[in-house]
Amino acid sequence: MILLTTSLPKAQNCASALQEATNEAVEVCATLHEAVMQLEDREFSAVVIDQLLLDSEPEEAETFFKHLGTAVPVYVNFAVSGIERVIRELRSALHRRGKEVLVARREAQQAMSHELRETVTALLLSCEIALEVPGLPTIAEGKLRNLRGLAEVLREKLGE
């Protein structure tokens, strides 16, 4: 969902064009205060904000920025920008956001995989050391071998 924040009389026309261009629902707010309330209630992929509103309400702008969350801000001066330019800017911002999300997801997966590999290695080492304990009861040895087998399966799934 996209949040369009502008006090322009033709905001609804702009919202319709943005919705058609992006295939995402567009919510319209005329003030920064309304935008903050929407940002508190919902998650938005992007917020198209009229630069004139930010300039005219600096105190409210601070609150607005605090509530953006994961939404990508698209700053537009509607006085000089046509709808085609706004659409290009929005598409570009959404495309950048998509790339950033993919990169962040990949990095998180790699970090998680690395941590899991370290844990599996430690688990395998611990099993090997425990299996070398003299006088280990047979039942405990069986359990440790099962645990080592499970850790080896996990290691294979992690691609180590």
The strands making up the biggest β-sheet line up spatially as 2-1-3-4
> What pattern of helices and strands is seen along the backbone?
EHEHEHHEHH
Q: What proportion of the residues is helical, as a percent range?
A: 55-70%
Give the terminus-to-terminus CA distance: 40 Å
State Rg. 27 Å
Number of strands: 4
The CATH class name of the largest domain reads Alpha Beta
**Largest β sheet strand count, sense and barrel closure:** 4 strands, parallel
CATH architecture of the largest domain: 3-Layer(aba) Sandwich
Low-confidence stretches: none
User: How would you classify the helix and strand content by structural class?
Assistant: alpha/beta
Question: What's the tally of helices?
Answer: 6
Number of folding domains? 2
Tell me the strand percentage band.
Answer: 5-15%
Mean pLDDT score: 91
The name of the CATH topology of the largest domain is Rossmann fold
Shape: rod-shaped
